[in-house]
Amino acid sequence: MSRNTADRLTVFSDREEPRSPPREQTVSVVGLGYIGLPTAAILADRGYRVHGVDVRPDVVATINGGGIHIHEPHLDALVAKVVRSGRLTASTRPGEADVHFLCVPTPINADTSADLSYVEAAARSIRPHVRRGNLIILESTSPPGTTERIVAPHAVPPEFEVGRDVFVSHCPERVLPGRILIEAVENDRIVGGMTTRCAEKTRRFYEMFVTGGIFTTSATAAETAKLVENSFRDVNIAFANELSMMCDQLGIDVHEIIELANRHPRVNILSPGPGVGGHCISVDPWFLVHACPEQTPLIRQARGVNNHKPHVVLRRIVDAARARGARTIGCLGLAYKADVDDLRESPSLEIVRELRAMDEFELLVCEPYVVANRFTEFPLTDLDDVLRRSDVLALLTDHAPFRNLPFETLQGKSVVDPRGTWRRTLREGGAAKSLPRAA
């Protein structure tokens, strides 16, 4: 993207743009990761003066230099633009602001319970800087009750009353990696206030930069709604993954079965894959399970199915290698989904780690979206090398550089393709005769 294009870049749709900020309002964004940094950049582009906060000095230095540390389309140009304008600065320390955003991680512990230490630390960090009239917004996806039990007690000074002096809300992000700059603005948003006044004040703030619908409710309802959204998707993916294991047992093609079943006007089965990853779908259902363990057996079972799927794919790869006496396995992709660099909870990375731990095969791994000097766990190999040297080829993440490989590059190899991405290529290239059936 050229500098001229970057200067023209707008994150708003063709619909009516939000109103301008009422004055030179300042916004603090604590946590400059996959959600915090795009949010900070969007707000700065809208006219707010934004102070970004992150505990990692290298991230702060990168952003203050006009760069980014994550992969997201057009984010580099937008960050460079707002840093150059002076509207976005970053620091390791919070400061005073009119609006405080908390966009920190909410991972799970070993027992799948929520680790809310980052949320608590972020809330404590802004407390010395909270002033009368401030708005505090938790965007991090959180278990029901987090805003009320963690954020408000630790962020709001005791002399202030929530809903009268300081306003606290939860507004969960609802964006798809790869489309964050679009969806953070255009998607409908849920605003959950600790009081009605909190919700209304938060709604008015979001109207300044969101073109989608804004729906107000309680903080706990907003927290729950986001978890329900991702749990719904997890359950549906689990159904597809369970079908893939069933069809493998029956010796039939799950992708064909799904295509045929989806001919029914009221059936829309998703596609299976190597598992479920990312910081949302693979984590959020556990928050509901732990909140209501007796009422969520289906959600718990779906998590079990999706967590088991990487081990099934791993076994297919190992069986394919052993069946042909292969020594070299090529693994394509480490990220949890196509065309992003996000490795959090990635089933692809889990499969590769387990293959490496076996120490039985030479493993070649290609991940085009991960910067090599930021990933030091094991070496990465370029795509041409992987294709040339591998006897077995496993497509774990269907990145764009992998999707349309010509048949000649796959010919003669054992192929494991849990996503079904290469089905047409293999079929049209006469794969049924020259290649084992794709897993």
CATH fold call of the largest domain: Rossmann fold
Instruction: Output the helix-strand order.
Output: HEHEHHEEHEHEHEHEHHHHEHEHEHHEHH
Uncertain residue ranges? 1-16, 431-439
Largest β sheet strand count, sense and barrel closure: 8 strands, mixed
Q: What's the average pLDDT?
A: 92
Q: From the helix content, strand content and strand pairing, which structural class follows?
A: alpha/beta
Strand order of the largest sheet: 3-2-1-4-5-6-7-8
Short description:
The chain has 439 residues and is an alpha/beta fold.
Structural notes for this entry:
It is a single chain. The protein has helices at 3-8, 36-46, 57-64, 75-85, 117-126, 146-155, 180-186, 196-206, 219-250, 254-261, 284-291, 297-323, 347-358, 383-389, 400-403, 407-410, 423-428, 431-434, and strands at 26-30, 49-53, 88-91, 99-102, 135-138, 167-170, 189-193, 214-218, 328-332, 362-366, 392-395, 414-416. It has two domains: 3-212, NAD(P)-binding Rossmann-like Domain (Rossmann fold, 3-Layer(aba) Sandwich); 274-434, Rossmann fold, CATH 3.40.50.720. Mean pLDDT is 92; it is low at 1-16 and 431-439. It is globular. α9 (219-250) runs parallel beside α12 (297-323). An eight-stranded mixed β-sheet has the order 3-2-1-4-5-6-7-8, sandwiched between helices. A four-stranded parallel β-sheet has the order 10-9-11-12, with helices on both faces. The protein has 439 residues and is α/β, with parallel strands linked by helices. It has 18 helices and twelve strands. Helices cover 42% and strands 12% of the residues. The longest helix has 32 residues, at 219-250. α6 links the parallel β5 (135-138) and β6.
